[in-house]
Amino acid sequence: MRVRARAATTALATGLAVVLLGSTASATEPGAPGIGDPYYPGSGNGGYDVDYYDLRLTYQPKTDELAGTTTILATSTQPLSSFYLDFALDTSSVRVNNQPAKFAREGEAELRVTPKRPIAKGQPMTITVRYQDVPSTVQVDGFTAWKRLPDGALAVDQPHIASWWYPSNDHPLDKATFDVSVEVPNDVSAISNGRLLDKESKRPGWTRWNWRSTSPQASYLTTLAVGDFEVIEDTTPDGKPLVTAYSRSLDPANARAAKASLGRTVDVTEVLSEYFGPYPFEANGGVVSPGVGFALETQTRPVYDEVFFDDGSSNTYVVAHELAHQWFGDLVSVTGWRDIWVNEGFASYAEFLWSEYLGEGTAAELAGYLYDQYPADDPFWQVKPGDPGPENQFHPAVYDRGAMAVQALRTEIGDAAFFELLRTWPAERANGTGSVHDMIAMAERISGKQLDKLFDTWLFTPGKPPVGPNGSATGSRAAQAEPPAFAKISRNHELLHQN
Length: 499
What we know:
Layout: H1 2-27, E1 48-60, E2 65-76, E3 83-86, E4 91-96, E5 99-100, E6 102-105, E7 110-114, E8 124-133, E9 146-149, E10 152-155, E11 176-185, E12 189-191, E13 195-200, E14 206-217, E15 224-227, E16 229-235, E17 241-247, H2 252-262, H3 265-276, E18 284-289, E19 295-296, E20 303-305, H4 316-324, E21 333-334, H5 340-358, H6 363-373, H7 396-428, E22 433-434, H8 436-447, H9 452-460, H10 486-496
Helix pairs in contact: 3-4, 4-5, 5-6, 5-7, 6-7, 7-8, 7-9
């Protein structure tokens, strides 16, 4: 009996082991090669959340060669037999939890990683990727977002740039903190986000720049600018680092206008803080360079093309636009790229608010004048800012009609509820994401009004709204006279949507 019982127990245990192993095997599967964004199905990845990136790189401007290691701290959200990283550069090795991992390129910007051992749900992962390549020669979907300059390069673009310089979960849904350490020749600078911790020289002719971003940051908001820059280090009145950098290859007149514009960064930030709440990050500043082609709200340190400063005077309006993104776009990022209006509509409206502060036209005057500039048959009105499609994600309508929609909301719910909304959105959704529909729900909650008709008209219905943003059939009584700020803001939007 004992022998039989033991045999039966062994058989039962063996069978149970087979069942358990089979269950584990069936439950362990690859992470998805996309995070689920309908505009960009290949963006981001499923199966894990990133907490931290450590980039330790060396860049040689003469050859455009980038080499080094990125270490990622992440946690699995499902049992994983393999997972994906968004990355396009030539990779030499991958390790997962200190063990060599298999890896293979799938498509132009997907790296499939198979760890030596399956990853359990909730398990911490340390992923180390070594690589070396010439980013300007690497194309994804027929182009490179890496911008090579005569004296360096720019890693700046939207919605994607990370794949050209570090492996990532490349979507705003998965924010993380960053350490970015880049070694470059002594005659150039390496500028990134956050605080400059130090500069160190460990070998002759080279300097390593170490930057730290302590607030969660979307991958496309992480930037690198290498070149011959005049780097000006200062502090804000509340003691935060204020780092601005100007390429020495700027046209001298443009350089002066850029310095006059970014020289008011603290002023603009203080005014916007009155509307949006305290400035949310550990540092501030900006970078101005040729070769960008647009301006972008890279976190703590927006990047501007010099073209914004070439029309004969300073341009604080584009500074207001990009700094407004620090709240609307960076602190609270898009849930999906179809939600771009929450970024661009409110950042464009911030230019109107800055104009009010300067006395160069009220928001109502600017929105009304803008409404009257576009005739009803203009194709401009066919783009829906609330869901423009990937081909129109940076269309002028997302900026201009988007800002008019914000003014229409202000008209409908009144100033008290409107300005409460501007403060509540960043406060309640800090370090996370939000969608157009989240914004609509919050506006209805704060105002106590049902706003479907308003938002359907301004964000989701092709055609010119029959009632303007100030509640009348024409834009405003002041629409006969062009507000002083209008020309500058209009040109900014023309340049911005080229992104």
